[in-house]
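Please predict the structure of the following assembly.
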Amino acid sequence: MVELSTSILSVEKDKATRTFYNLETAKTDYFHIDVMDGKFVTNDTSKIMKEYATTIRQISNTPLDVHLMTYSAKDYVEEYIDLEPNIITFHIEAIKSKEEAFELINFIKENNSRVGIAIKPSTNIQEIYEFLPFIHMLLIMTVEPGYGGQKLIPEMIEKVKELKQYINTNNIEIDIEVDGGINLENAELLKEAGANILVAGTSIIKSNDYKKVISELKK
Ligand code: DX5
Ligand code: ZN
């Protein structure tokens, strides 16, 4: 059984609260908060994502899975800490040095959140091996970060397999999250490859039965 983290990126503002209630009832394991700064990716969702995450916190205890697609990740960690996120994930491509990455990992842990690292499709898995023993989750982007509704890049399935192989061989306990273009057609392949947390936005939000799609994806 895998866990399901619903991306709220494509939730419409005027239906937001109702949608969050419905997702809660449909038993999403996490709300996936896609924070974009308009610099690391062209889209800027920083304001709306903070509004949505605050609304979710007021009506639900379901854990927040915060995905920072931003530079100055530390500033965004500070912005989200008051919402007590379960996990905060930053992009390794937005970090200038190894020292900065370890500093950020410690800063997130000191603020009582679990920590994840995300990698873009073009980043090799070897580039993050050294961080794995110090983090709780590795997020493999299965689309180019920046917006929802894209098609999954099939080559990323190989990348999940490679990571799973590495963590098994090296006895590393870590969650593997995949994110982008995930639906009922490709979920099985990703689970078989070793992913244990699936992020889905469009395939859930655009459906007319959240509970059904979420339970199917998790099966
Ligand atoms: C893309 C985001 C993803 C995306 C997922 O930059 O990180 O979380 O919103 O949405 P879908 O499932 O529609 O690809
Ligand atoms: Zn995301």
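The chain is about 35% helix and 20% strand. The beta strands are 3-7, 30-36, 64-69, 87-91, 114-119, 137-141, 175-179, 197-200.
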